[in-house]
Amino acid sequence: MVLQRRDLLGTAVAAAAGTAWPRRRARAQAQTIRIGVMNDMSGPYRDGSGPGSVVLTQQAVQDFGSRGFNVEVLQADHQNKPDVGANIARQWLDQGVDVVADLPTSSVALAVNQIAREKNKVHLNSGAATSDLTGAICSPNTVHWTYDTYMLAKSTGAAIVKAGGDSWFFITADYAFGHALERDTGNFVKAQGGTVLGNVRFPFPATTDFSAFVVQARASRAKVLGLATASTDTVNAIKGAREFGLQRSMKIAALLIGLPDVKALGLESGQGLLLTEPFYWDMNDRTRALTQRVKAKNQDRPPAMEPAGCYGMVLHYLKAVADMGVAAAKASGADAVARMKAMPTDDDAFGPGLIRADGRKIHPSYLFQVKTPAESRNPWDLYKLVATTPAEEAFRPLSEGNCPLVRS
Amino acid sequence: MDDIFGIPAPLLFGQLLLGLINGAFYAMLSLGLAVIFGLLNIVNMAHGAQFMMGAFAAWMLLAWFGIGYWWALLLAPIIIAITGIILERLLISRLYKLDHLYGLLLTFGLALIIEGVFRNEFGSSGLPYRIPDALSGAWDLGFMFMPVYRGWVVIAALVLCLATWLIIEKTRLGAYLRAATENAALVQAFGVNVPRMVTLTYGFGVALAAVGGVLAAPIYSVNPQMGSNLIIVVFATVVIGGMGSILGAILTGFTLGVVEGLTKVFWPEASATVIFVIMAIVLLARPAGLFGRA
Amino acid sequence: MASDTTITAGALAASEKPGEGVWGFSRAQIIALGALVVFLAVAPFVLYPVFLMKLLCFALFACAFNLLIGYVGLLSFGHAAYFGMGGYLAGHAAKVWGLTPELSIIVGGATAAALGAVAGWIAIRRQGIYFAMITLALAQMVYFFCVQAPFTGGEDGIQAIPRGNLLGVLPLDRDMNMYWVVVAVFLGGFLLIHRIIHSPYGQVLKSIRENEPRATSLGYRTDDYKLMAFILSATLAGVAGATKSLVFGIATLTDVHWAMSGEVVLMTLVGGLGTVFGPLVGAAVIVTMQNYLAEMGAWVTVIQGVIFVACVIAFRRGIVGEIARLLKVKL
């Protein structure tokens, strides 16, 4: 019986120690900015963000240099569980962490967004796709940096139609994200004078074999196959399409796919695929220089777009902190974000840019085509640029987002 | 062009054929489960993870040792079977005297470990694996475009399934196996080394999963979670077929693949749930499963 | 050791003497319960209340699960379905219908009960591993439903669920107020389960666990008893999920995923199958681990797997079961 109580107390002491420790440290070093990188370290989004985002955040801190205050980078795995993410975020922010960064997986991002606002801290988002973050539920404490569903749909949909791909067939994951992506892309296709010939919705996440849907797509005789899917589904669908010889009559456009997925697909299967990203390591001298700096720390891989976003947004945040003073930045997350919005951005990953009133970071989006094995000169030489959507057209116009911050 | 229920006949035949291909995977996996369950009385929750290991083994053989698809088809199952045999000797064999549920819990834990380790080592987005040159390309069947590799998968799976059935039902070894399932002590008394037979049976069941993995590697994404979604469908297949029967597992696997394929034509959104609905109906009508003994 | 061969090793470790102690509790259990109440009263002033609330929600979930495995011998591998659906419906009720928190929790519990009635009706036709696989498959269907149904918000889940005012009066936005509500819900569920086990109905359940044909031959309609237990377990799991969704203000796919079903099995296994306090201790261990190992990244799942294997191979009684064996009492 005694053991029973001791056991409970033991848990209590361990937990208390865990909670009390950073608080004490926070008092000791008021001049320290703490950035918590939270993402998926163990699940399906690990390769997109995961440890890479931590490496790039640390690189941003290093490149920023010493300007009279310390910066500490923490990391945590939200396991794609909103309650785990919310719990970590609450504890972090209560215990002296100033910024929660990255946050892929929309459900976790939306939950943390709420908490950061409640506690007046800063939420820098690179990994989440949902455009709601700068829409109806936009927050004065949030910057959404890298991409969102609107940007993906616009760049891929509009640019491909302009290039002659004017009839589309969609294979869509049957849930809210897939529907939104299909609808948005379809609208841009139609706006450019293209047509949508049909679609098929497959059960998510239970589908591993896409051949049945690929055959239907082929029968539609559309010029472009749009894949409103994510990660593994996209890879499986593309493999299926290639096997059934779809690439001979259709172009394949993946609406959400990143560099690690393309690498996983391999150039053999992936060649010719069209996709949109706002960052590619081999774009220009600045991105190549950044890649050189981090490659060794990043398991010899160039950064994907989410970690690159972490680099850009953390660097910009630190500039804002230096500009307004550490004490003021720590006191109010909203003030820090306001200062970020007031300053033009410039970093090696995204070049010059700006942050809008709704928290949306603005930069160009690029339509890439995956190279053929013959074109590729090194293991990570995967993309060639097809089209660029300029920064001011790449994202949803400020007036259409219904963000309350914009009206006031 | 004739229409059947408003769907062009060629499309329908095409989907039937594709369903058969998926069914081949279901059949191979549920066969492995049934073989293991028959003798060990353990539901191998790690079966999906071992399917995944098979695919990864094929990739490793190619990337690290330059060993191609055909050798991988032979070597990968042997390697994975050996890991399975080690697991059986070290861990699973300790549970035979206990409630069967402990076996389920143990293999579930093993599946978590295996998937976690692979994710740490290889990341989550997967690895590329090419279709072997001899099987690339496609036949034009008139009513559809049929990749050669898919045809190979169906044939290979059918041959494997039938061979397994023949071994178990028609050979002396199979007779021992079946006898040990009924009364292990008696078979042991006749001088048959039952524990070794049990170990090898587990290895064989795992090897079947690994062959499935190698066959899947060129057409599906090779990633650590590739087995976990499939395995729940396979469980449903096993419940529908009834665990007792080898032939039942094979037939149910292929049939459900076809049913799922047809659902993809008529009502694609429901194609994931159709197998579970069938499972519920079968349970209400025949609780022991279609081929099970009550 | 004969008792080692059944899944409920912990429960059988000590002899049972019904009638001793108060309200079906043994003396050791009364002391443990007292310690628990003291802990719950002091803890929020020392520990992070939100963390404690999460722990209690999972503890109730594990207790509900334990009702089936520990006292009826049925291993459900799909309990996340009831936990998660309870959370979704409670969240929907509080956010969209604007119901008060207590009504939202009731809605969540009732949903889980209805779902449990249907799933239980199908699943109790088979026992043992078949039962486990069937519940898993049915839960997977529920998961697919939640992914597609519009009201669940798909991948985003239901966000910003208001905690509201208890009975329309007491504002629950303050963590401490919410905490006491969660404590009340947990203790209510906990005592209810205990009461069920020690009722004549509970005795019949145990007899079914020990020997179902004999119970049938004694004239008990065992299927009805099993179904009732299944529904009760599902209901309490739903209440736990509903409470959790109010605490965090979110209801998402995580809670209906099969990994969650696995987690509740792990919690109960670690704490001790078939013990009264085991699920609580197990939930405390696993939730604490998840929270403080978050920085370990990908190794969390591996560690969970290792714990699973270790428990099954060497530690089948679980923490509380082992303690009870050492002290020769029933906990």
Structure at a glance:
The complex is a heterotrimer of chains A (408), B (294) and C (331). With 408 residues, chain A is α/β, with parallel strands linked by helices.
Q: Overview of this structure, please?
A:
The complex is a heterotrimer of chains A (408), B (294) and C (331). Chain A contains 15 helices and 15 strands. In chain A, helix 5 (149-162) runs parallel beside helix 6 and helix 11 crosses helix 13 (333-342). With 408 residues, chain A is an alpha/beta fold. Chain A starts with a helix and ends with a helix. The relative contact order of chain A is 0.14. Chain A is globular. Chain B is mostly helical and 294 residues long. Chain B has one domain (15-121, 148-285): ABC transporter involved in vitamin B12 uptake, BtuC. Chain B has eleven helices and four strands. In chain B, strand 1 (3-4) and strand 2 form a beta hairpin. The mean pLDDT of chain B is 85. Chain C is mainly alpha-helical and 331 residues long. Chain C has a domain at 37-257. Chain C contains 14 helices and two strands. The radius of gyration of chain C is 19 Å and the shape is globular. The two termini of chain C are 20 Å apart. Classes of the chains: A alpha/beta (408), B mainly alpha (294), C mainly alpha (331). Chains in contact: A-B, A-C, B-C.
